[in-house]
UniProtKB/TrEMBL annotation:
FAD binds at A27, L56, I92, W358, G365, T366, I367. It comes from Iodidimonas gelatinilytica. The lineage of its organism: Bacteria, Pseudomonadati, Pseudomonadota, Alphaproteobacteria, Iodidimonadales. Keywords: FAD, Flavoprotein, NADP, Oxidoreductase. InterPro entries: FAD/NAD-bd_sf, FAD/NAD-binding_dom, Ferredox_Rdtase, Ferredox_Rdtase_adrenod. It comes from the Bacteria. Pfam families: Pyr_redox_2. This is NADP oxidoreductase. SUPFAM superfamilies: Nucleotide-binding domain. Residues 18-180 form the FAD/NAD(P)-binding domain. Its cofactor is FAD. NADP(+) binds at N163, G164, N165, V166, R207, R208, E219, G365. Belongs to the ferredoxin--NADP reductase type 1 family. PANTHER family: GLUTAMATE SYNTHASE 1 [NADH], CHLOROPLASTIC-LIKE. GO terms for molecular function: oxidoreductase activity.
């Protein structure tokens, strides 16, 4: 059986399995890759609400970490296969429903990620100057949903809540100089605004100790090599070296980096980045705008994080919570409000409907974690679902035409990509389009073409 197939018109064979994947991030593309590389004849449509593919690789991964974004070369290969098609600028739940996709395809996979900020759930969270990382990261990465934001940067003091790599990314992007951001694809608006900030202090807080932080050594280590910012830590928060032998290598490296930070002094550089542990926010203070946060000291007992009742106030004009994300619910799909993701049993939601990646597991793991996840879901679909001679691509394209939606193809994305690369200045890899209309102008007005995969 020819899995690669060729693009050509004609009827769809009854043993061609037609799958729609909603979301073109890592989870979507790894699932498409596993399906297409199986011994079965498949036709996979990878659908995204944006005209640009690759999810958080484009809009989440930090703009100064370009080498990480190279993973998209692998997705390019999958996207260029005859049996995999990208359908961009089509929002499922708004333009087309999941129920409609289930009518059109043999199986549907939700790979929609998790891009809503989890709330801190404390008073003052609605004050101006309190932001979630989805806002800030989307803004500096030119995500069309966030480009109009004007974060409250006219402050010397920033508090970041959270002890993962997203907290480090946000701190680093704020702390770097313009020169240090050369070679990145940060939004020029964000770069200018950050360079005008009267920044003096960034305080990163984790409610548990350094051994519970989910920083990776590489990202943490980078904080020790910034031009104008010095990382600081209170040595009293760090465990003694006696227990080092029992630690995992990764924890040992994190601890070594933090011990190094403990040797620095605030006077070394104009901006200080403090790593604070065993402290949780209990109230955000301010009238019209945040001017501080009330924190409570904590201790960890038998694995539980307990408040000690000892309070202290930290002044700040911008508070950014980096405490994780939730998926967005989609009509007709069972959603667990508490966990913030689709109700699923190892990726199975209901007959012929599956979830993968962050939409399945919640916001955990690295880009690579989505690969085995995609392979597992592909295998499950191939085992569970029989081809049913459904309308597939042709049916979707008819719906798109009827609803006059300007869906885009992978070739269209390549035009956008080329235009962005051409517009780049200096060492920067690209200048991203901020507005959907500008992207669609580059694409032109050809209607999406129905091409069937032949067995
Ligand atoms: C700020 C940040 C930085 C990160 N940095 C790194 C890093 O440096 N290294 C690393 O290994 N990992 C990093 N990660 C983690 C990595 O990005 C995730 O593991 C990965 O992107 C999750 O893949 P996904 O496909 O599940 O979701 P996503 O990448 O979020 O993709 C979901 C896709 O679904 C689309 N979509 C959503 N809703 C709809 C809808 N209704 N209709 C159609 N399309 C829809 C979205 O537009 C998006 O393209 C980072 C994460 C964040 C948040």
């Amino acid at each position: 059986m020819l899995a690669g197939g060729c693009y050509c018109g004609g009827d769809v064979s009854t043993d061609l399995l037609q799958v729609a994947i909603i979301g073109s991030g890592p989870a979507g593309y790894y699932t498409a890759e596993a399906l297409a590389e199986s011994i079965h004849a498949v036709s996979v449509d990878v659908i995204d609400r944006l005209p640009t593919p690759f999810g958080l690789i484009r809009t989440g991964v930090a703009p100064d970490h370009q080498s990480i974004k190279n993973v998209t070369k692998r997705y390019d290969q999958t996207a260029s296969r005859d049996d995999v098609r990208f359908v961009g600028n089509l929002s499922i739940g708004r333009d087309v429903s999941v129920a409609e996709l289930l009518d059109l395809y043999d199986a549907v996979v939700l790979a929609t990620g998790a891009l809503q900020d989890r709330k801190l759930g404390i008073s003052g969270e609605d004050l101006a100057g309190v932001r979630g990382s989805a806002d800030i990261v989307g803004w500096y990465n030119t995500h069309p949903d966030y480009v109009a934001l004007t974060p409250e940067l006219n402050t010397p003091s920033v508090v970041i809540i959270g002890n993962g790599n997203v907290a480090i990314d946000v701190a680093r992007v704020l702390a770097k100089t313009e020169a240090e951001m050369a070679g990145s694809d940060i939004s020029p608006k964000a770069k200018d605004a950050i360079s005008r900030m009267p920044l003096r202090t960034i305080r990163i807080f984790g409610r548990r100790g350094p051994m519970d932080a989910s920083f990776t050594p590489k990202e943490l280590g980078e904080m020790g090599r910034l031009e104008r910012a010095v990382p600081l830590v209170d040595k009293a928060d760090l465990p003694s070296m006696d227990g080092d032998a029992d630690l995992e290598p990764k924890q040992r490296k994190v601890l070594a980096a933090l011990r190094g930070f403990g040797d620095h002094s605030a006077q070394e550089k104009p901006v200080q980045v403090h790593f604070g542990f065993y402290a949780r926010p209990v109230e955000i203070l301010g009238h019209d705008r945040v001017d501080g946060v009330l924190m409570e000291r904590t201790r960890v007992e038998n694995g539980a994080c307990i408040g000690t009742g000892e309070m202290f106030t930290v002044p700040c004009g911008l508070l950014i919570s980096c405490i994780g994300y939730r998926s967005s619910a989609i009509e007709g799909v069972p959603f667990d409000e508490r966990l913030g993701r689709f109700v699923n049993n190892d990726g199975f939601i209901s007959d012929r409907l599956y979830a993968v990646g962050w939409a399945r597991r919640g916001p955990t793991g690295t880009i690579g974690t989505n690969k085995p996840d995609g392979a597992e879901i592909a295998k499950r679909i191939l085992n569970d679902v029989q081809p049913m001679d459904k309308p597939g691509r042709k049916g979707l394209d008819a719906l798109i035409a009827k609803r006059q939606i300007r869906a885009v193809t992978f070739r269209d994305w390549q035009k956008i990509d080329a235009a962005e690369r051409q517009a780049a200045e200096g060492e920067n890899p690209r200048l991203k389009f901020a507005r959907l209309d500008d992207m669609l102008d580059v694409v032109g007005n050809e209607a999406i073409e129905t091409q069937q995969v032949k067995k």
